[in-house]
Design brief:
Layout (H helix, E strand, L loop, with lengths): L2 E5 L2 E4 L4 E8 L6 E8 L6 E6 L5 E3 L8 E6 L4 E6 L8 E9 L7 E2 L3 E6 L1
Parallel strand pairs: 2-11
Antiparallel strand pairs: 1-3, 3-8, 4-5, 4-9, 5-6, 7-8, 9-10, 9-11
Length: about 120
């Protein structure tokens, strides 16, 4: 059974940085595309960033652009989300997701990790 486990969330002051991790198991990690999403209280889940199996990254436009960096370490079956210059509006539960190559949805999801940005 595929498992995605996020970690690294917590409480951080506005302007600070945080690095999230997501470790996958029971899948051939290097062949899967991976992504980060987030969901703030009372809001819909939104895309944050994705990284292809070959390491190509894409990011959401808007307020997150230029502040977040996604990366992957295939040797550790792990992706990361480096977040800097955090803002109050970045407060959310952050989820990682994976999907196999080819057409299809993000089929596997982690349980999420809470990020709270304080003033």
């Amino acid at each position: 059974q595929v498992q995605l486990v996020e970690s690294g969330g917590g409480l951080v002051q506005a302007g600070g940085s945080l690095r999230l991790s997501c470790t996958a198991s029971q899948l051939t990690f290097s062949t899967y595309h991976m992504a980060w999403f987030r969901q703030a209280p009372g809001k819909a889940r939104e895309f944050v960033a994705a990284i292809t199996s070959s390491g190509g990254a894409s990011y959401a436009t808007g307020s997150m652009k230029g502040r977040f960096t996604i990366s992957r370490d295939n040797a550790k079956n792990t992706i990361y989300l480096q977040m800097s210059s955090l803002k109050l509006e970045d407060t959310a539960v952050y989820y990682c997701a994976s999907r196999a190559d080819g057409p299809g949805d993000w089929g596997y999801w982690g349980q999420g990790t809470q990020v709270t940005v304080s003033s």
